[in-house]
Design a protein that fits this description.
5-stranded antiparallel β-sheet; globular; transport; alpha/beta; ATP-binding cassette domain-containing protein; OB fold (Dihydrolipoamide Acetyltransferase, E2P); ABC_transporter-like_CS; 289 residues; Rossmann fold
Length: 289
């Protein structure tokens, strides 16, 4: 079990932002972190790693205290069994892929983990290459492998796939699934991609204004109980145009543009940039492959 109950104030931030987060997750779970920009998602990861220190509270992983303000326990980052991957790949440019992985290995640790990670992430053809010769997707595969070299109990991912194109992103998702399946770390992953969280995670923690707003399975988290539509999509309004007597909204759904006719009574209630839910109550689509 991973138990987190921490508080931290940031008086220098606008409006005196503070974090007050309390939740428990099972070890080995794949947990999504979801919420608007500035909600405190990355701050939460920094508090878990020890890169930032809570004002009070506790953080316990597998029964071991990583932080406890009452007991005056605050393990430094190097003593917490944590791996981290960010959007930037942070590989050593003067080292080959294999050297990057070896550098992360603790002295006296079994080197077999490197070969296992090379196999899981399919890096065998890249081990002698330098980061400058790798694509973004290849660099991120190396970054994920390097984060797991020390077999951390917790792997923290801060939007690691957001800079990749959709095809590469989907491929990296499969690598993540295999990595989690074989090595079984507890993963906390920040993402704004609903499909990604739905596909990868066991549960999603919604963070808003420095607090936990909701914890649920991805199926429950992203469903709207007040809508009875058979099909529901989250979309962004890119444009609203008038065509003769009709108003047409251009919506961005996933990676596709969709045009929807608006009732004249609805037009004034929507603006470009709005995040909306598209629901179809009587819809019987055909699915093709």
């Amino acid at each position: 079990m991973i138990e987190i109950a921490i508080q931290k104030a940031f008086p220098n931030k606008k409006d005196g932002f503070s974090i007050a987060i309390n939740f428990e997750v099972n070890e080995g779970d794949f947990v999504g972190i979801y919420g608007p920009s500035g909600a405190g998602k990355t701050t939460l990861l920094r508090l878990i790693t020890g890169l930032s220190t809570p004002d009070k509270g506790y953080l316990k992983v597998g029964g071991k205290e990583w932080f406890n303000s009452n007991l005056k326990i605050d393990l430094p980052p190097q003593k917490r069994e944590v791996g981290m991957v960010f959007q930037d790949f942070a590989l050593f440019p003067n080292m080959t892929v294999h050297e990057n992985l070896k550098y992360a290995l603790k002295k006296g640790t079994d080197k077999a983990i490197i070969n296992q990670l090379i196999e899981i992430m399919e890096l065998s053809d890249l081990i002698d290459q330098y980061p400058s010769t790798l694509s973004g997707g290849q660099k991120q595969r190396v970054g994920m492998a390097r984060a797991m070299v020390q077999s951390p109990k917790v792997l923290l991912l801060d939007e690691p796939l957001s800079a990749l194109d959709p095809k590469m992103r989907q491929k990296l998702q499969l690598y993540l699934i295999e990595l989690h399946k074989q090595l079984k770390p507890t993963i906390f992953m920040i993402s704004h991609d609903i499909g990604e969280l739905y596909k990868l995670t066991h549960q999603v923690i919604g963070i808003n204004d420095g607090k936990v707003a909701k914890i649920a399975s991805p199926q429950e988290f992203f469903s709207s109980a007040d809508l009875s539509g058979k099909f529901k999509f989250t979309a962004e309004i890119l444009a609203i145009e008038k065509h003769d007597i009709l108003h047409v909204a251009t919506l961005f759904i996933g990676n596709h543009l969709v045009k929807v006719i608006l009732d004249k009574d609805e037009v004034d209630s929507f603006s470009i940039g709005d995040k909306v839910t598209v629901a179809a109550k009587a819809f019987n689509p055909s699915i093709y492959k």
